[in-house]
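Worked example 3. Consider a protein that binds FE2/S2 (inorganic) cluster.
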Amino acid sequence: MSETVRIRLRPMGVDIDTPRGTPLQDVLFSYGVEFPCGGNGRCKGCRVRVIEGSLPVTPAQETMLSADERAAGWRLSCQCRAEEDLTLELAQWEAQILADTSAFAFTPRQGYGVAVDVGSTTLVAQLLDLSRAEVLAVRSALNPQARYGADIMSRVAHAVEPAGRATLVKALRKHIGKMLGELLEAHPDQSRTIHDVVLVGNSVMHHLFCDIDVTPFSHYPFQPETLAQRAFTARELGWNLPGDPGVRFLPGIGGFVGSDILAGVLATGLHRSQDVQVLVDLGTNGEIVVGNRDRLLCASTAAGPAFEGARIYMGMRASTGAVSAVHVKDGHLECRVLGNVPPRGICGSGLVDAVASALTLGLVKPGGRFEDGGSSLMLCPPVKVSQTDIRELQLAKGAIAAGIRLLIREFGTTHEQVTKVLLAGAFGNYVDTDSARRIGLLPFESAQIHPSGNTALLGAKIALFTPPETFDELAGRIEHVSLSSLDGFQDTYVEEMLFPPAFNSNE
Ligand code: FES
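Given these inputs, the predicted complex is written out as structure tokens:
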């Protein structure tokens, strides 16, 4: 028997060889994992999930971890030793993934249903008791397609390669199927029958789940042949679920604007609003809806991956070790780091904050250059923001702000007349809205802006209680606008890349 064992840490992608029998606390501590109660088995802060291999459940863990958690493979690392090769997921490295706990009106049904938000970056699935619309279990995960590219355009590029689409479709279906299996394990009930599974996602996710050719997304005018609602049986997808339920991917609207936005419109009630409202999903592909009960316009805009920390010098996802907030205190920059560990990078919300703070201190000019002509700004060593990072942020925020401005103009209204700006998606809910206003990403007053949670997931849950044709009808009511075909698109984009020269935070 070998004297060493290999520990693989996920999602970091780190492999560690260590002598057999080493306490996991010793192994993980050097990788920044915290042991809040000092490794005494009293806090659960050091949780790891066993993906491959096994770790025995000790009495201390039986007390601290629920049966569901133990069954899902969670262990307290401070109570375990590395006796065999292991693949572990670190709870402290879990990304901030937005689920949903909102209450909503429903007509009770029998049995169980599952709602899934298929994001380009993250997947979230909830198991519901349809008689009470109660969420019984939640599973979230990184989208397994992310290894083929962070944004949807790189997925499209991979999908048009020989066998590329098949790989992406298989990876996505398999992973979601696994999550559904975990949901059922987390809530064992011999008599349960799944009646309905509803999925929502952007147009590329729709195609890559439904196994539809994505070539139209690879070139102008980026208009797919169909975004129609697609239905499958679980068995067709290779999922072994009790009752072999129907699985529906809700219809998209047009271009890149998919059923996640359609579900968001339904969840927020924007389509019934008397006043003009705006729904914005801030992601690599910013999606925007402007409208009211009489008319609805939507568009998507290629913001790029800056909000998710990609293509940023020290960028990372919003997980442990990321600078997630930066504020000005006594004329200096003060950083908050997720997980209270030494900083190792910066995520999207931290970047927006950092640039907003630098603008406030006069360290960055409205054009985006550093005031002192330097090439970077140190936030908290070793994390800094480079001139190129600021340019990436300008591209992202310029695309969103220009999209909002053009769509508001097309609707025939003004920013002032918009009563609510509803922010969907994880980034929109974690970003500091004052910082977003300071950099000109959200050119609205504070009172207009309403972080609205995971509206896509909420809409998917509502869909479990809604006739499928409701979504087809609503999708048909929303006009898709191609921003680049509008007069003044280029000029508006260039103007919106600039930062506002001055700002009144009380506005
Ligand atoms: S460090 Fe507290 S339970 Fe392990």
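Take a moment to read the result before moving on. Residues 35-37, 39, 41-46, 76, 78 surround FE2/S2 (inorganic) cluster (CB under 6 Å). The mean pLDDT is 89.
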